[in-house]
Amino acid sequence: MSGMNKEQYLGVYVSTLTYDDILADIEQRMAAGKKSTIIAVNPEKLIAASQNPELKQLINAATYQIPDGIGVVLASKLKGGRLASRVTGIDLMERLIALAANKGYRVFLYGAKEEVVQKAKQNLEAKYPGLCIAGYMNGYVNDDGAVVRAIQAANADMLFVALGSPRQELWIRAHLDQLDVKVFQGVGGSFDVFAGRVKRAPKLFRTFGLEWFYRLITDPKRFKRQLALPKFLWKVLTEKEAADHRTAAKERSR
Ligand code: UDP
């Protein structure tokens, strides 16, 4: 993928592709036998990555760094970027599931509690006729070898890993080469949502990008986590000079 489809905040890439762009790109990559990895980024993860070179490298090495979180879109708007709207991990996962049902790609679900991953599988199969969830494994088996063998035995094309961040991203990187899977996505708490355990914000809040506000009023404990948003915007705005300086220096040297 060319750098044209990315913006950079605090030294971390963010993809500017829409859901449809990503799906089309993934299909091309699958046809070419290439593996694709998807990591969702938000202000919290971008701040963490800016302070941890290994995490930054891990995120930057992914095929798609999707802007899950309104804070990243805001940053782009403030800096005159091209990011128009969020691409959330859960919505992208659901679109990939729909694609899999259509095209006959085999899906594997790895992570969450046993009853959660079972229920997620059941609900997704009921919603998407023709979907083949060829295997699943809960996220509390501490035997990576067994998980890898199960995924290979299922002959999976798409793997969704729900272990939380950055554990799921580290797991994907560690096992990427051992697996014949083509699409890898770390999906955090998404299985809990598909299982009906955790409710998403009502449509109205989501439409206006106010999912964070809904979470804040229904779960005030999250306030501390949400401080990442103003902190992130501040960091991005004060990083401006350095970035402009670099561009100017590069242009001068041409
Ligand atoms: N989880 C797991 N194994 C573990 C720890 C967590 O499978 O050892 C699962 C947990 O059950 C939940 C998901 O990982 O389904 C974490 O979701 P969370 O919303 O905390 O992730 P985030 O997106 O916030 O990183």
UniProtKB/TrEMBL annotation:
Keywords: Cell wall biogenesis/degradation, Glycosyltransferase, Teichoic acid biosynthesis, Transferase
Xref: Pfam families: Glyco_tran_WecG
Reaction(s) catalysed (UniProt annotation): UDP-N-acetyl-alpha-D-mannosamine + N-acetyl-alpha-D-glucosaminyl-di-trans,octa-cis-undecaprenyl diphosphate = N-acetyl-beta-D-mannosaminyl-(1->4)-N-acetyl-alpha-D-glucosaminyl di-trans,octa-cis-undecaprenyl diphosphate + UDP + H(+)
Domain of life: Bacteria
Transmembrane segments annotated in the record for this chain: none
Catalytic activity, EC: 2.4.1.187
One GO term (biological process): teichoic acid biosynthetic process
InterPro entries assigned to the protein according to its UniProt record, in alphabetical order: TagA_TarA (IPR034714), WecG_TagA_CpsF (IPR004629)
CDD domains per record: Glyco_transf_WecG_TagA
Leader sequence residues: none
Keyword Cell wall biogenesis/degradation found: yes
Pathway: Cell wall biogenesis; teichoic acid biosynthesis
GO molecular-function terms, A-Z: N-acetylglucosaminyldiphosphoundecaprenol N-acetyl-beta-D-mannosaminyltransferase activity
Key word Cell wall biogenesis/degradation present: yes
General function of this protein: Catalyzes the conversion of GlcNAc-PP-undecaprenol into ManNAc-GlcNAc-PP-undecaprenol, the first committed lipid intermediate in the de novo synthesis of teichoic acid.
HAMAP family: TagA_TarA
Family indicated by similarity: Belongs to the glycosyltransferase 26 family. TagA/TarA subfamily.
Protein name: N-acetylglucosaminyldiphosphoundecaprenol N-acetyl-beta-D-mannosaminyltransferase
Species per Swiss-Prot/TrEMBL record: Geobacillus genomosp. 3
Lineage of source species: Bacteria, Bacillati, Bacillota, Bacilli, Bacillales
